Structure formats: structure tokens, C-alpha cells
User: Fold this.
Amino acid sequence: MYRWLLCWRYLRTRYIALASVVSVMLGVATLVIVNSVMDGFTAEMQQRMHGILSDVIIESHSAHGLPNYQDTVAKIRQVVGEELAGITTVVHVPAMVSIDHRGETITRQINLIGIDIESYADVSDFSKYLLHPENQKRIGFDLKEDGYAPDRPGFPESGWKYRRLKAAAEKQLRAMQLAYEQEQERNRLLRAAIEASASGSSSANTAAELSVGSPVTASDLPPTPRDQADGAAEAPHDGHGLAFPELPAHLRSNDGDDAAPSGKSSSATTSPRTGATPGAEQSLPTPGPSVDAVATLDSDQAKVFDPEVDQHEGIVLGISIGSTRYRDAAGRVTDYYYVRPGDDVLVTFPSAGTSPRAINERFTVVDFYESKMSEYDATFAFVPLDKLQQYRGMSSDAVTSIQLKLRDGADLNAVRDRLRAEFPLELMVQVSTWRDLQGPLLAAVQMETTILNILLFLIIAVAGFGILATFFMIVVEKTKDIGILKSLGASGSGVASIFLGYGLLLGAFGAGVGALAGLVFVANINTVADMLETITGQEVFDPTVYYFETIPTLVQPMTVVWVVVGAVLIAVMASVLPAMRAARMHPVEALRYE
Amino acid sequence: MNSTARPIQPRKRDAIPLRVVEAAGLQPASPTPPAPAILQATDVYKSYRRNRHEVPVLRGCNFAAASGKTTAILGQSGSGKTTLLHLLGTLDAPDRGRIEFDGQRIDNLPRTARDRFRNRQLGMIFQFYHLLPEITAFQNVLLPMMIHAGFRGYLRHRRQYRQRAQELLERVGLLHRLHHKPRELSGGEMQRVAIARALVAGPKLLLADEPTGNLDRQTGQRILDLLDDLNREEGLTIVMVTHDESIAQRCDAVVHLADGKTVEV
Ligand SMILES: Nc1ncnc2c1ncn2[C@@H]1O[C@H](COP(=O)(O)OP(=O)(O)OP(=O)(O)O)[C@@H](O)[C@H]1O
Ligand SMILES: [Mg+2]
Assistant:
């Protein structure tokens, strides 16, 4: 009884001892925060990985893939039985995507995935990471009219609306280019004619052709090209003539809609395609490939691809393939899009078979995929399974992998082992769970957490030495009291337990307050981060680095309990030595102590 | 006086759990004249060692205190009075010789038995009171009971113990100072609290080391009167260390301590 009384008294009268547990408090708070944030990251990451990878993945390493997947699927159903919740077949192939942006071609290495629209959603969280609300409900590879990423303020206008504007503008540009080239050609001919007439050997042919065109005189020729060049000056003359440098700027701004019609109206007046120009086209000698392209595009609407109304096969690009995240001058996090839904990209991938050839295929970007796992967002591109099989020359029965989703609570490893027995590695088939595939990453995160925990516990251990020193001082200060207690018949262990209890109370207090502070901090971590940002002007949590808008946290009660128990233990252990000293104190010497 | 002293005596046996009485082999005090020596030290040697230099304090000291009597130990400063008292109270062990209490040797008892002896059979009073500064007078008085009973035992007998502590503080005239901390008390009041604490467990023997050494004459006189009363009314054996001849004269026996030996007068 006296132990608790004195222990409590000493606690109440020696607030300095509380100072020694401040470091315990801080250590515990830090541990709680770090673990919550790490667990939050891990959980978020695992959830995403798991969502993408599904539960069990059966992959074939053969170039032909799994030849008769129906047989395999039947076998899997038989092996897995009741626990199977969903199954889908997938074709994975390494590929390269070429994106035309401002006349430059950007190439990115990607992982092209052919998915079965019907069953893929059963197995994977794919659709919830798409940007268009309709696609989130149901995967579709058709370009939507508009309405992409409604909750994303900086997202550029996308979809059919954008595609039509772009196509129109491109047409206009091509027409302007054509007109410019025609002018050039005309000038050349004119100059030749003038030179010919000057030299006396005039050509009747050229003169006749010139007369068919608009009646231009040598004096008013120069201004016309210059006017047109204003718009097309920056236009790079690459073979395709697709680029229209100012277009993105117009479209991104709000007055993009206004700018485009005005462009159209100007095209009505200057375009050689409207009205009397066909005659000129026919009469002129063909200047180059761009004229060809325009001609072919214009000639037959039924057969020829018209970007204003047609789309290529749809492709869903990982958002980091088509965009970069950066910080603008004002420090805001901004996404810059090289390509957006409605644009076309060229995808290069190997054909099936033993000697693969590169296949180039145009796709229309129909949506972005943002899982916020940078690895996936930067490499995954999805196309319909049947199209990919067709393009690659695979049989429609062949797939490269099969993804399984199991019922909740199913033992993934057991299922994997059963499947492994059925599909040995000799068949060039690998069966793995999602954890196996992401093992190194998960292990690395786990390792990091462990090391952080050890380091932070060392901090608490250091705090333990502080407690040790403080307690020694208190024991020395209380020497006389110890002598009195002993003279009254208190046992050594009784005296020791005063100080052990003291350590326990202090440790519990420090750890409790620390844990509480940590939990409060975790609950408000994003507010705190914002506050720190405004105070220091330094970004605490950089979304361009982590791909999270806010700091994810997950408080695991067991972790908190362990941290608190550990801290209390350290405090108690730190009080063992002073307590032993108190217990061993000689009563007479203690009484004589001044 | 008698009216307040009475309740203490019967309660002393009631309050103390039976096992303690058994452990100590305590017999009801017999007030018969040929008083046997309840406390006896035989040929005790004690020296302190300081820097390899041996300081002999007690050299073949003999001492006996008659049961129910007051014995004074007189001696010059540094003659070893406090040392002897500590040996008698088992706070320290003699280098040689034996110390007996109630016919039983106590100097070589195991530590826990000595702790129990001090807690139950012995009351000690010091010149500098030695109260715990952080707890109230009342709690100081309760301390031996807390030490004795343990947590659950104390809670079970709490009312009993508190009542006894209160009665003792009333006996020493400090009922109005129950919940004062020692630093809020005068020296005489502190010494009276110390006496109450020494008596709370109902000891047979009271060892007092210059209990009035730090007090003015009048206050000291009152403390000595109180001790006398306790001796007379409850048959308490008192061994008192003092410098003062006049105080020694009040006692039944006086022992002089010189050259590490005792000389009975
Ligand atoms: N721990 C110790 N170490 C060394 N010498 C000691 C120690 N304790 C006591 N002494 C010595 O033993 C001798 C006796 O001391 P003690 O305290 O018993 O004297 P005393 O008779 O009580 O004196 P006083 O009347 O002044 O209280 C002294 O000379 C003292 O110096
Ligand atoms: Mg002394």
C-alpha cells in the first residue's frame, strides 16, 4: 500500500520526472504516426495492386500463349471449385506507343494488355480507375462525346467534341498548306514563265496553265503567301502534315470553341477546297505527299477513315503514359497531357509466333487509367482482347494469361499450390498469387517499416536512459526516506517496487499521452501538413512524388498497443537499476545521509 | 490520561492480525517486579572502516534493558550511542557478539525476519524525527501498518488502522494536525507524530535516539512526559539515548557508554 501511496506522491511532487518521459512521449507518438502512415501507404498500395492483379494469375511464357484456353479454364474451374469468384483471359504483350505531340513523336514503352470486356471487371478493379464516369460503370472502348474526368478541374477537353475540332483544324491546316504550296508552285511557274519570256524561249504550256488559275500578277503575288504563312509558319513539314501547333493552346483555353469556328470561317474564304478550287487542284502539278493525303481523305467518304466521325480501335492508356505531373511557376501541381481521349496513337507490338515481326497499329485513346500506382499508370495500356489477338495473328483461342478472383477468405496460397500441381512449370505455365508477383515491393516496404520501427524504438531506449538518470537522482534524493522506510520494516523489494511502480506510471503516462498525441496527429495529418506548408512555405507532402493527393493513414490497434507496451517496458526497465540501488541501500547509511 | 490510554491497550491485540503475534512469540506483558531483560546485547563489537582505517566504536559492549522499564544510555558525543541503538534495532549488524530480544537472538536473523521485527516489535524515534516529507502526519503514522498489511490487507483493515492512528494522534495531542505535511508542523509536533508512528503497530520496545535533542526544554519536557505515561500505562519498554543527565535521572536505569563499553550506574 505504502508503495502506491509513495509512488503516487513522488509522481505528484516531482514534475521534473515528467520531463524525462517527454522523449518517451515523442517516441511513441512518432512510432504511432510512422506506423500509421506506412501502413496506410502499404494498405493503399496493396489494395491497388491486388485490385489490378486479381488473386491468382496463371501466365504462359510460350510465344503462342495458352493454346486452348477453354480447356485450361475448364480445368481451373474444376481444380479451384467453389472458391472461384471470377475468371478472365488476358493477352499480355510488350509494346511501344508513339504519341504525336506538337509535331514531335514521343515513344513510350508499355505493357499492352488485351482484356475481355465481359469478364475483366469481375476479376479486377480496372474500371473504377478509368476517368469517364460511364466507363467506370462499364468498360467500353468507344470514344465518348465528352465529360471525361468531371472531378478534375485541369483536365483538357476530350472525347468526340475535341476530336472533331481537331480534325477540322487539321483539315484546315492541310488546306492552308496546300494553298501555300500551290502559291509557291504558281510563283515558281510564273517566275519560270517570266524568265522564259525574258530569255525569249517561252513555253506555251506553262503560260496556258497559269491562265487557268486565279489571275495573279507578279506585283500582288508576294503578300498572299506571307498572309498564309502567319498561321502556318511554325508548322513543321513532316511527311504526315498532322501537326497544328497552336491548336492545343486554343482548345485548352475557354475560348477554344470560339477560336475554332473563326478558323472555319476563315477557311471558307481561303480554302482552295471550297468552291472553285477543285479545278486548280486538278490543273496543278502534284506538289508533294501532303496534297496526296488530302486528296485521298477527301475523295471517298464511305471507305476512307475520317477522324471527324471515325475512331480507330479504342485503347485505354495509363495516365502517366500520356501525361506528366509537374509543378507550375506558382507551385501548383499540374498535369500536362501529351495526348488525351480523342487523340490517335500508334502502337507497335510483336506478332505472335516463333519469329515475331513488329506490327504497327493505330488506336484511338478512349480513356485514361489511373490506379495511382505509378508503375502501372506508366506502363499499362488496355485494348480489347479479340482485336489484339487478331492484330497479332493469334488464334482467338489463345491467351497469355488467365486471372482468377477467389471468394473472400479463400486461401490464395493453397489454391495456387493446387493449380501448380495441375500446371507444372514444364508446361511453360507459371501460377502465382498477386503477393508473389509484388513480393519484392511488399518486402521492401515491410523492411522499411521494420527498420523505422527499430530506429524509433532506439529513440525510446535513449529516452529510457534519461529516465534512468532521473530516477537515480530521485533515489539519491530520497535516500533518507528509504532509510526511514527500512527502519519501519519495509523490505528491500517493497522499496524497490516504489520506484518500479514509479517507472511504470511514468512510462504508462508517457506512452499513453504519446499514443494519444500520435493518434490525434494521424487523424489530422493532412491539416497539419497543410499548416506546415503555409508556415514554412515548404511542401511537406509532395503529390508529384507520391501520387497521393492526401497522406493515407491506417491505424492498426495492435501496433499501437505494442508500441505502448514496448515503451512502458522500456520505462520500467530503466527504473530497475535505480530501484535495485534503493533496495540495496543500507538503512543506517541511508538514515545518516544528508 | 487513563481514559485515552485505555483503548490502545486492548485494541493493540485486536488490531494486529493473529499471525504477527504468533510470529513474534509475543506474550502479554507481565508487570511483575523482577523484570527480566527483554533486550540484551552481549559482548558486541562494531567498527567502521574508512579508507582501510578501522574505527572501532563498540568494543565488547554489554547492555540489557529490563522489560517494562525505561533505560537511558548516556555518553559523550561520538561514543557510539547511536551505533548501539542501531544494533539493538537490527538496522545494522554487529561484527561480533549477540543481541537478543525476548530470549531470541535477532542480530543474525534473515533479512525478512528482521524487517518484520522492526515493523511489529520495535518503535523507533530519532532526533531529527525522520518523517516522510511528502505525506501527511496521518499517513506517516499509518505507514507501519501499510508496510505490514500489504495492499489488500490494508484495504481490508483500513478502518481499523485509521481509527488506531487517529487515536494515537489524539493521544499525543495532534488531532487538529492530522492532514498537515511534516513541513507544516513544529519540531515538537513532528516528534509527537514520530512517537505516534512508533507506537501504531503496538510494539513492545521503543528505541529513542535523543528524542528531545532538537527541542526546547519545555517541548522536550512534554515529550518525555508522554514517554513516561506510555511506559507507566502500557508497560512499554523504552531505551533512550541522551546527553542530558537530568533526563537520564528520570529513567529506571542509566547506562554509560565510554570507550566502546557500557558502565552501569
Ligand atoms: N558510517 C560510519 N563510518 C565511519 N565512522 C562512523 C560511521 N558511523 C559512525 N561512525 C563513527 O562512530 C563513532 C560513533 O558514532 P555515533 O553516531 O554512534 O556517536 P554518538 O554517540 O551517537 O554521538 P552523538 O552523541 O554525537 O550522536 C563516531 O566517532 C563516528 O565518527
Ligand atoms: Mg547519536
